TrEMBL record:
InterPro entries recorded: GP_PDE_dom, PLC-like_Pdiesterase_TIM-brl
Domain of life of the native organism: Bacteria
Molecular functions (GO terms): phosphoric diester hydrolase activity
A Gene Ontology biological process term: lipid metabolic process
Gene3D superfamilies: Phosphatidylinositol (PI) phosphodiesterase (3.20.20.190)
Ranges where the GP-PDE domain occurs: 10-279
Lineage: Bacteria, Pseudomonadati, Bacteroidota, Cytophagia, Cytophagales
Record's protein name: Glycerophosphodiester phosphodiesterase
Species per Swiss-Prot/TrEMBL record: Hymenobacter rubripertinctus
A Pfam family of this chain: GDPD
Amino acid sequence: MSSALTRPFPEIHGHRGCRGLLPENTMPAFREALRLGVDVVELDVVISADHQVVVSHEPWMSAAICRTPAGAAIAAAGQLRHNLYQLPYARIREYDCGLTRHPSFPEQRPVPACKPLLREVVTELENLARQLGRSPVGYSIEVKSGEGEEPQFQPPPAVFLKLVLAELRTLEILPRTTLLSFDKRVLQLARPALPTLPLCLLIEDKLPLAHHLMELGFRPEVLGPDFGLLTPALGAELREQHIKLVPWTVNDVLDMQRVLALAPWGITTDYPNRLLALR
């Protein structure tokens, strides 16, 4: 097994910070993930009406976790009307997405929190790492682009990518960043734009790896599959292709132990505290 594809213990990637413990994609979750000792912070980015790079999983305010600026709950049937791509960031910041506990994460501690800008998250974590005397954290940044989403919820992929890369250059974190996407168009545009940036293709279907690589047109540095898709055969195929394995989202301790047996490069989890305990 190539040492370039494995580690003594996989990198611990804090999913949306540490979603199992604190509200996803918020400053409290990112700070806690860093304090816990994650190797990499995973987060999602979308674009606002004024072309700011906003940290959010959806390009709208999710009814499951967000409240209006007036503090009211958002109805599921109407959540798409709270479209981040149609709102300037100053307005986005008025919504709260931390006081409503995510129904799937009973251990999550609600705290007031807004959707931050990417530059705010990175600046905060770089400063906190220095205060803690720890090595700078890595960044796993998912571009939440999707076919059919533009022009309603996002700009065209080329514009989306240009905005994100501009932020990464300004923040000077490119050497510690991997760019992720389910949208192959984003990765296809990123490869010639910045050939040295590691790219991760995310998958959640049972199509063969060869099919995905053929559609993509090149071999990404990393594959990020739903951990339920993992098999020894897929692990062997990735080693043959010299592609690193970083599955998501592995939360149960028994599942973590099963995934560890496949010697992945990293593991993405909502509960980095559980994976850190195994390390």
